[in-house]
Amino acid sequence: MDRSEDLKQLHALLLERSVKRGDFVLASGKRSSYYVDARLTTMSGRGQLLIGRLGLAALDDAGWKADAVGGLTLGADPIAYAIAHEAAANDRKLEAFTVRKEVKEHGTGKLIEGAFAAGMSVVIVEDVITTGESALRAARALRAADGHVLGVLAVVDRAEGGRERIEQEGYAVRSLTSVSELIR
Length: 184
Prior knowledge:
The chain has helices at about 5-20, 40, 45-60, 75-90, 135-145, 160-170, 180; strands at about 20-25, 30-35, 70, 95-100, 110-115, 120-130, 150-155, 170-180. By secondary structure, the protein is an alpha/beta fold. The chain has a single domain (about 50-180), classed as Rossmann fold (3-Layer(aba) Sandwich), CATH 3.40.50. The strands form two sheets. The protein has a six-stranded mixed beta sheet with strand order 5-4-3-6-7-8. It has a two-stranded antiparallel ribbon with strand order 1-2. Helix 5 (about 135-145) links the parallel strand 6 (about 120-130) and strand 7 (about 150-155). Helix 1 (about 5-20) packs across helix 3 (about 45-60) and helix 3 packs across helix 4. It is globular and about 45 Å long.
């Protein structure tokens, strides 16, 4: 596996599928001349293959010995599944979970779905970090459920203060790429 080639291919895929130029209002309410709809990449087969490989390598590089990966639905879901799949393909155990935006009103009433249990060490994954709110929301839910958050891994960092906000809460942050690497 050549990480630099995988990263080059991920950049190309993000530019082809996910980076849009125009006039956009972001979830934060801010206006932007570009929008990164990473789901168009993270939900593609090729994107999942690349993100799985690069994401697992990023966890290793950070020294994060996680039991599970996941984050706030919907952006985190395909990333968590891709990384867990890559781990399984390499005979490594790594589970995936998703954090709902609201507690489920029926059935088991879970806020965290999937293979998460109290006491697990987890890495929060995110498609795009802008303000950091989605990752922090997931971290709060996991802490309340007795999870140990090792850090946050994003596919794209917009470099608009979200990383710093997450770090101020005490979490290390890694990203596979940043907007400055995509938009030149």
